[in-house]
Write a structure and sequence with these properties.
The complex is a heterodimer.
Chain A lengths: L1 E2 L27 E4 H5 L3 H16 L4 H17 L3 H9 L7 H13 L10
Parallel strand pairs in A: 1-2
Helix pairs in contact in A: 3-5
Chain B lengths: L6 E2 H17 L3 E4 L2 E6 L2 E10 L3 E13 L6 E13 L3 E7 L10 E6 L7 E6 L8 H14 L1 H9 L1
Antiparallel strand pairs in B: 1-6, 2-4, 3-4, 4-5, 5-6, 6-7, 7-8, 8-9
Classes of the chains: A mainly alpha, B alpha+beta.
Chain lengths: 121, 159
């Protein structure tokens, strides 16, 4: 993986809401940049980084798909049920929606490129 | 124009930075640990914590879709998000979520937890676009909550 903004990125890791489930490795993502690094850049540097971020984001999903699948799989293992079963239980009101469940749903939506039409923030 | 309307990425970043800096200057927000990842297929995922005072943090996850354009001038829109506010070592304070599908939680909604009481949870659907807070507004809501309940929160953490 390439991290933008080099000197201050030493030791950079993503801060996950559920850190122990973060299976990200340095090879499975194309491009990442921290807010803290962006904030310290000049306008020209920011533009360059955002250009690169968009270019990477518009590329077909390759290694990132493995990362997303791995995060979903971690939840399936932890909860001992498939994502299909999770969705069934939620629909049947048999599964309480916790923060972890919401995160699981987020990554399912990310995997499937689902857009929540009502999501606006 | 709606505060949630599609926006150029460069402008989105500028507004985001301005609001985060304002929150830090205000003293409630201590650190922004959000990272933006290019996840491919036209999406960018922002993930990480906003670390506040008094052991409060907001676990942020959001996905931006690139609607059109190139580079920093590309037009983006949030298509998925979750803002989970936690009092470290105690539990959740609130969580704003996007809809989860046509049958389970079909609307944007907020989970509110009576963390200073019996821990009970209330889920409120949000039907109006303008009632959906921005991330900065969520942090401001938490600051208001903390300062209104400072003694109780501090006492809870000393237990």
């Amino acid at each position: 993986m390439f991290y933008a903004s080099l000197p201050s990125c030493e030791g950079l890791t993503n801060s996950s809401p559920f850190g122990d489930l973060n299976t990200q490795t340095e090879d499975d993502m194309a491009f990442a940049v921290k807010d803290a690094d962006l904030f310290g850049m000049t306008e020209g540097q920011k533009e360059s980084i955002l250009n690169d971020l968009v270019a990477a984001a518009k590329a077909p999903r390759n290694g990132q798909a493995l990362r997303i699948d791995a995060r979903i799989r971690k939840y399936e293992i932890r909860y001992e049920m498939s994502s299909t079963e999770l969705l069934r239980r939620l629909q049947a009101n048999e599964q309480h929606e916790t923060a972890e469940i919401a995160d699981w749903l987020f990554w399912l939506g990310t995997r499937d490129n689902e857009d929540n039409e009502q999501a606006r923030p | 124009m709606s505060k949630h309307a599609p926006n150029r990425l460069s402008n989105y970043q500028k507004v985001h930075e301005k609001r985060i800096r304002h929150l830090i200057d205000g003293g409630f927000l201590v650190k922004d640990a959000i990272t933006w990842d290019a996840t491919g297929d036209g999406y960018i995922v922002g993930e990480g914590d906003l670390i506040c005072i008094a052991g409060i943090r907001v676990q942020v996850i959001k996905r931006l879709k690139i609607l059109s354009g190139e580079g920093a001038n590309a037009t983006v829109k949030t298509v998925s998000y979750g803002y989970n506010a936690v009092l470290s070592g105690i539990g959740n304070i609130l969580r704003y979520d996007n809809p989860h599908g046509p049958t389970h939680r079909p609307y944007d909604h907020v989970h509110r937890f009576d963390i200073l009481g019996d821990g009970s949870e209330e889920v409120i659907d949000i039907y109006s676009e303008e009632q959906i807070p921005t991330l900065a507004q969520v942090v401001e809501e938490l600051a208001d909550w903390y300062y209104a309940n400072k003694d109780a929160v501090d006492a809870l953490q000393r237990m």
